[in-house]
Fold this sequence. Notes:
Helices cover 28% and strands 15% of the residues. The protein is α/β, with parallel strands linked by helices. The chain has one domain: Aldolase class I (TIM Barrel, Alpha-Beta Barrel), CATH 3.20.20. A hairpin with a 4-residue loop joins strand 10 and strand 11 (312-314). The radius of gyration is 20 Å and the shape is globular. Bound molecules: S-adenosylmethionine. S-adenosylmethionine binds at residues 50, 56-57, 99-100, 102, 132-134, 156, 196, 198, 225, 227-228, 230, 234, 375-376, 380. It catalyses: GTP + AH2 + S-adenosyl-L-methionine = (8S)-3',8-cyclo-7,8-dihydroguanosine 5'-triphosphate + 5'-deoxyadenosine + L-methionine + A + H(+). InterPro entries: Aldolase_TIM, Elp3/MiaA/NifB-like_rSAM, MoaA, MoaA-like, MoaA_NifB_PqqE_Fe-S-bd_CS, MoaA_twitch, MoCo_biosynth_MoaA/MoaC, rSAM. Monomer and homodimer.
Amino acid sequence: MSERVIPLVDQRHPSLPLPTVSAEQDLSDLPLDGLRRPLTDLRISVTDRCNFRCSYCMPKEVFDKDYAYLPHSHLLSFEEITRIASVFVGRGVRKIRLTGGEPLLRKNIEILIEQLAALRTPDGQPLDLTLTTNGSLLARKAQSLKDAGLQRVTVSLDGLDDAIFRKMNDVDFPVADVLEGIAAAQAAGLGPIKVNMVVKRGTNEHEILPMARHFRGTGIVLRFIEYMDVGATNGWCMDEVLPSADVVRLLQTELPLVQLDPSAPGETAERWGYANAQGEYDPALGEVGVISSVTQAFCGDCNRARLSTEGRLYLCLFASQGYDLRQLLRDTAQSDAALAATVDAIWRGRTDQYSVLRSLRGPDTASGPGRRVEMSYIGG
Length: 380
Ligand code: SAM
């Protein structure tokens, strides 16, 4: 079978030159980037394919039947992913999130999960291993994911109204099947489960309260995400962003909330707990989160790196170029120590703070040679 050649990613986004490192590089200190941020969180995209066509992420008009996805030989193999993940763990990473595309579409993903679950930090701890999914295959796979060693899942769900949800995923996928997937994940013990809802003004803001009512008191943490200007194909405009502050105000009209402390440094979500009749946080009612990627820059403590489906390392969700680590992984002369030295050098050179800069000068128009890569490729 012949492979299709994919011009999209390679030609539009040439990779950045890899730093030259010495074989004797001192690896005794974990790297801090140019803004003194550590590297603790790695997101790995395992496929650039998805079975949904959400207009804010993979619009049908662009990702149609002729769209050239990466051929299999371009994807990192499970062994390559596990090897580079282990190098990252040696350089400070404590949390790995598998994403995509739709990660559950990657064949035998459980094998990769087993391999990653076996990794240990230098002080012998298991990783925080999680996965973001649209939930469409979760009912079928929740137990095998748990058995393979996955700890928890985040499920994307943009509303409970079936008509709105079918329209947003644009493949007529029913909401009931995602809810069944969430229930299966809960039954399998893949918790604490988070549910991400992208809020688009004029499309699904009427779903905010029904979603909050539905998940309140279930142990599931619902998070509202501002519609972001990621990629270059979703036709983003500020008018369609509903600021998180408005979301919190709307929730408060019916469900009193109190603000909670961040659970970890670099946490992207602002946490709000449901209050009891005394106005105090009631853990039995749970919490919601808001992710203000557009209206409130949170670059200051961003500790995340992203590995694309074909092994490029991106230092920011809004980056246009990455570093080709696959080239190193497929070079038999490269030892793990050399890979670690390269990761260190790349991280130490990092100064990205796209959201801060955007809030100062406004969003890019996302066209031209510096256009940003798609979220489905870099991993959401
Ligand atoms: N297919 C998986 C899923 O649906 O969760 C994982 C990949 S998806 C790119 C990861 C997350 O990014 C989802 O929660 C999705 O809603 C979110 N996302 C995609 N495009 C976005 C955008 N333009 N603004 C905000 N969130 C977005």
